[in-house]
C-alpha cells in the first residue's frame, strides 16, 4: 500500500519538486545527480540505490535521526546509533573516493562531516535533548532560562568543593556519586518530559543538566589526575 502511494506521489513530484507532506508520511523527492532517477531522500539519506551506488549531496532537511534511520526520540539505543554510524562511514569515507570524480570527492567529504556532526550530537544526551528542542523550534539559551535559587546555590557549593585543594589529595568519591546520580535522575525526567512534549519543563531540565555536565567534566578530569580512569 505504501509503495503504491509512493509511486503516485513520485509522479506528483515530477511536476512539483517541493517537499511533499502528508499527515502520517513525509517525503523529500530529488533526482539523483548521476542516474537522474527520482528518489526519496528521507529514505536514501546518503546513497542513491542505482547500480553504481553513488553518493548524494548533503541535504540538511534530513535531520540527524533520519540520517541514521532511527526514531526521533530522546530514548535512543546508543549501540544502534554507533552501529549505523560505522556502517555508513564505511561506505562514504573520503579515502574511498580519492580516485573518483570531483563531485564524488566533494560529496564524500560533505557527507562524512555531516555524519560526524550528527553522530556526536545524538551520542551526547545533553546535545541530543538540545537538538530535539531545536527541531521543535525551541532554542536553548542559558541566559533566558531561569532556575530556582536553591538549585543554583547547590551547584555553587559543589563547584566550590571541586575547586578545593583537598580534591588534589583525595578524590571526592561521594560528590562524584552524587553528581552522577543527579545526572541520571535529570536524564530520566528529561526523557519523560520530551516524551510528553512538555517543552517548557524540558527546557528547564536541559538548563539543569547543563550545570551537571560541567560538574561531571570536572569530575572526569579529577579521575584522570587520580589515575581512576
Ligand atoms: Zn542514482
Give a topology summary.
Blueprint lengths: L1 H14 L4 E2 L4 E2 L1 E3 L6 E3 L23 H4 L10 H15 L9 H22 L1 H11 L13 H15 L2 H4 L3 H23 L3 H27 L4
Antiparallel strand pairs: 1-2, 3-4
The chain binds zinc ion.
Structure description:
The protein is mainly alpha-helical. It has two domains: 29-123, DnaJ domain (Helix Hairpins, Orthogonal Bundle), CATH 1.10.287; 141-226, Monooxygenase (Up-down Bundle). Helix content is 59%, strand content 4%. The chain contains nine helices and four strands. It has helices at residues 2-15, 64-67, 78-92, 102-123, 125-135, 149-163, 166-169, 173-195, 199-225, and strands spanning 20-21, 26-27, 29-31, 38-40. Helix 8 (173-195) packs antiparallel against helix 9 (199-225). The protein is elongated and about 65 Å long. Residues 1-24 have low confidence and may be disordered. It binds zinc ion. Residues 32, 34-35, 37, 48, 50, 54 line the site of zinc ion. InterPro entries: DnaJ_domain, HscB, HscB_C_sf, HscB_oligo_C, J_dom_sf. One of its GO terms (molecular function) is ATPase activator activity.
Amino acid at each position: 500500500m505504501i509503495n503504491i502511494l509512493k509511486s503516485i506521489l513520485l509522479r506528483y513530484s515530477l511536476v512539483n519538486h517541493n517537499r511533499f507532506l502528508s499527515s502520517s508520511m513525509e517525503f523529500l523527492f530529488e533526482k539523483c545527480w548521476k542516474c537522474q532517477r527520482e528518489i526519496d531522500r528521507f529514505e536514501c539519506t546518503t546513497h542513491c540505490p542505482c547500480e553504481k551506488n553513488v553518493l548524494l549531496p548533503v541535504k540538511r532537511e534530513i535531520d540527524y535521526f533520519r540520517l541514521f534511520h532511527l526514531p526521533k526520540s530522546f530514548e535512543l539505543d546508543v549501540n544502534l546509533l554507533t552501529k549505523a554510524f560505522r556502517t555508513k562511514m564505511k561506505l562514504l569515507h573520503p579515502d574511498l573516493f580519492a580516485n573518483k570524480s570531483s563531485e564524488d570527492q566533494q560529496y564524500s567529504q560533505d557527507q562524512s562531516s555531516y555524519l560526524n556532526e550528527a553522530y556526536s550530537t545524538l551520542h551526547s544526551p545533553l546535545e541530543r535533548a538540545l537538538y530535539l528542542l531545536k527541531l521543535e523550534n525551541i532554542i536553548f539559551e542559558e541566559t533566558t532560562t531561569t532556575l530556582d535559587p536553591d538549585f543554583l546555590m547547590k551547584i555553587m557549593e559543589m563547584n566550590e568543593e571541586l575547586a578545593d585543594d583537598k580534591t588534589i589529595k583525595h578524590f571526592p568519591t561521594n560528590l562524584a556519586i552524587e553528581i552522577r546520580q543527579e545526572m541520571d535522575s535529570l536524564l530520566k525526567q528529561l526523557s519523560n518530559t520530551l516524551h510528553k512534549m512538555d517543552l517548557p519543563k524540558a527546557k528547564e531540565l536541559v538548563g539543569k543538566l547543563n550545570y551537571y555536565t560541567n560538574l561531571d567534566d570536572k569530575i572526569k578530569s579529577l579521575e584522570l589526575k587520580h589515575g581512576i580512569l
